[in-house]
Amino acid sequence: MSNTSQVLKHLKDLKHLPLEGLRFRLVDAKGQIVGHLASQIAIILQGKDKPIYNPKKNLGDVVVVINAAHVHFTHDTWNTKLYRWHTGLPGGLKERKAIDQWDRDPTKILKDAVKGMLPKNKTQVYRMEKLKVFPELDHPFSDFDLVPYIPTSKPFQIPQIGWSIPEGMEAVNVEKHAFRMKASSSLKNDPRPIIDFSDLMTADERQLLLGQQQKTD
């Protein structure tokens, strides 16, 4: 299929929509968290990033997403999140894990996430028609005037720990706090890996930690 044919194929959903004054936003999904990225795309599709936003009008920009096959879920969501649907027949309830859904169609992961964050009304269909998702870098909109959109980062978190530190609750003594986190037996079997604070410890603290780990082993 030629590049022109691909453009026409993807634009056929937009023929009923007024595109005058709208931008084509280019979003690189590589390395992004699905839910966090989907919430930002939903804002663009609704036009909430514009001062002329009106919930009754379809003023959102067209969003072209690339590298959708390289998104991430937090923790073990790939194996625990289920997509369910019904065939309409008795006993026709079906379900599929997120990792299996990704194998079948990696773009559907992000599409479903964005759809779930849009208002459940008549505008949802038209807004979803403005979302064009591609698994890799290749897309047929290279001849268009694309405006890059850089997703905002998530709130500050300790690297490799899945919860944010509330404002004003930061540790006063970072070294002692790091030592307690490393030596805590309650976190030993936690599925979330603990950050490596070894470079913050003194020689005595490292020796004590090594002794505790040998006892538990």
Estimate nothing, just give the exact number of structural domains: 2
Major sheet: arrangement of strands: 5-2-1-6
Global structural class: alpha/beta
CATH superfamily of the largest domain: Ribosomal protein L13
Q: Tally the helices: what do you get?
A: 8
Q: What is the radius of gyration? A: 23 Å
**C-alpha end-to-end distance:** 60 Å
CATH structural architecture of the largest domain: Alpha-Beta Complex
Shape: elongated
Please tally the β strands and state the result: 6
Please report which band the strand proportion falls in: under 5%, 5-15%, 15-25%, 25-35%, 35-45% or over 45%: 5-15%
For the largest beta-sheet, the strand count, sense and barrel status come to:
4 strands, parallel
Low-confidence parts, pLDDT < 50 over ≥5 residues?
A: 155-162, 191-195
CATH topology of the largest domain: Ribosomal Protein L13p, Chain: A
SSE string:
HEHEHEEHHHEEHH
Helix content: 25-40%
What is the typical, i.e. mean, pLDDT? 81
